[in-house]
Design goal:
Elements (H helix, E strand, L loop, with lengths): L2 H17 L4 H17 L2 H16 L6 H14 L2 H13 L5 H17 L2 H18 L4 H12 L9 H10 L3 H29 L1 H4 L17 H23 L4 H18 L5 H35 L1 H11 L4 H16 L4 H16 L6 H14 L8 H10 L6 H24 L2 H4 L4
Length: 439
């Protein structure tokens, strides 16, 4: 077999192994080492490449953003800021049909800006928002669909682990990726809120809600002083993290350190973190960081294998042979993202597919920062679609409610997946929405 054929088979083997449940770095590393061994008929070369990939990857200074932002997100979650943001947002939207859903979207956007985790958002708001919506007569599919749909904001609104992983894979600035994610994240948040408002009027049976005199669907919720303190503290964190990067006063790493320090102060001030909780957050940060570093190391080896197999050059030749333009390439890419998103998680897609498509998009003269936003949003649609749909599975397991089936969660999330697709089309059509902020 030719190196190209070996490389092509290796990509298919990696996707199959990940789908079958093999740990992503193991699949990437194992197949890459074996492929290099076969291509060059030299086991020593394969092992030396592995050694080189480990050394080069771990020494990247930008990796320091991972433990810092992870630690900040864990402390924010332990401090209970998600419930505080939700309480304030619920007060703002309480007298609108679907208002609790709008509050959930707004709270998820705020929570995402200080955690960067879709899984954390899905878990927190499944406990906080779904019982509240069911109590007020909203349908179960609408309740879980809102939480599932808005949970993906955690991967788009910075700081986001997926944006960091993409930045490291394609060697782009983490700070630029964070800034580029702000407008698309806010645009998706606004699109969700507008969609819920329209659903309440056009499809009231899907939304539900106990309409009472004056058009209100809920009793006026109470916002305590503690809620306001938490809400303001969250705003302060966002200002420090994103404001520091945007003004250039802080680098992404310095911003992560400042955010983590401020999150610790907030958690201690509110009495939400004990010594045991602090140690637990440190351990979890270590586990998450190690897992991500393992991912990036395996991805580095995978990219080197692709280069030896000649796949990137073959993809570039394909572009020239069929005279594919910007529109055709983006249609193929988005469809592939959505399809793979139904069977793989976002990190897997970024690590496996992006290195293959870079030779196709770079000759088109597009911004790789913008391309990263398109990649993350396209892959995140898969979090809401079967059979994988990680956010949907998290919500189902968190609720532990036999009356709410996994089918209910997926069906409820379907309209929000469609809204994500529409927003993605807008961002592809108008790249300035994501990169104009970079100046």
């Amino acid at each position: 077999m030719s190196p190209f054929e070996i490389g092509l088979i290796s990509v298919i083997a990696i996707v199959a192994m990940i789908y079958l449940g093999v740990y992503i770095p193991v699949a990437l590393g194992l197949v890459s080492v074996i492929s290099v061994w076969i291509i060059r008929d030299n086991p020593n070369l394969a092992l030396n490449l592995l050694k080189s990939a480990v050394g080069d990857s771990v020494r990247e200074y930008a990796f320091a953003t991972i433990p810092l932002f992870t630690f900040m997100g864990l402390l924010v979650s332990k401090a209970g800021l998600g419930a505080d943001i939700y309480a304030v947002m619920n007060r703002i939207f309480y007298n609108i049909r679907g208002g609790v859903g709008m509050a959930t979207v707004g709270a998820n956007a705020g929570f995402a800006a200080v955690t960067g985790s879709s899984i954390a958002s899905a878990s927190v708001f499944a406990k906080v928002a779904v019982p509240e919506m069911l109590k007020l007569g909203y349908t179960k599919r609408f309740a879980v669909g809102v939480v599932a749909g808005s949970s993906v904001l955690g991967m788009i609104i910075p700081p986001s682990a997926m944006l960091i992983i993409y930045a490291l894979v394609v060697e782009q600035s983490v700070g630029d990726m964070f800034l580029a994610g702000v407008v698309p994240g806010l645009l998706l948040t606004l699109a969700y809120i507008v969609a819920i408002f329209l659903m309440g009027r056009l499809t009231p049976r899907f939304v539900g809600g106990n309409a009472i005199e004056g058009g209100s669907v809920a009793e006026k919720p109470t916002v305590t002083q503690s809620h306001m303190v938490g809400f303001i503290a969250t705003g302060g964190l966002v200002l420090v993290v994103l404001g520091g990067i945007y003004t250039g006063y802080l680098t992404p790493i310095e911003s992560g350190a400042a955010g983590a320090g401020l999150a610790l102060i907030i958690a201690l001030f509110r009495g939400r973190v004990t010594l045991g909780g602090f140690w637990s957050a440190l351990l979890e940060t270590g586990h998450i960081t190690a897992a991500i570093l393992f991912l990036i190391t395996a991805a580095s080896l995978y990219q080197r294998m692709l280069g030896m197999a000649g796949l990137p050059n073959a993809m570039a030749d394909l572009l020239m042979t069929y005279n594919l333009g910007f529109t055709e390439v983006m249609i193929i890419y988005v469809l592939l993202m959505i399809f793979l998103g139904t069977i793989l998680d976002t990190a897997s897609i970024i690590l496996v597919v992006v290195p293959l498509f870079l030779p196709l998009v770079e000759p088109l003269g597009v911004s790789l920062v913008w391309f990263g936003i398109v990649t993350v949003i396209g892959a995140e649609i898969g979090l809401l679609t079967p059979p994988l749909g990680i956010s949907c599975f998290v919500i189902k397991s968190t609720l532990d409610n036999p009356d709410i089936t996994l089918k209910d969660v997926f069906m409820g999330a379907l309209p929000f997946a469609f809204i994500m697709l529409l927003v993605l089309i807008v961002i592809i059509s108008f790249p300035a929405l994501s990169i104009a902020i970079l100046g």
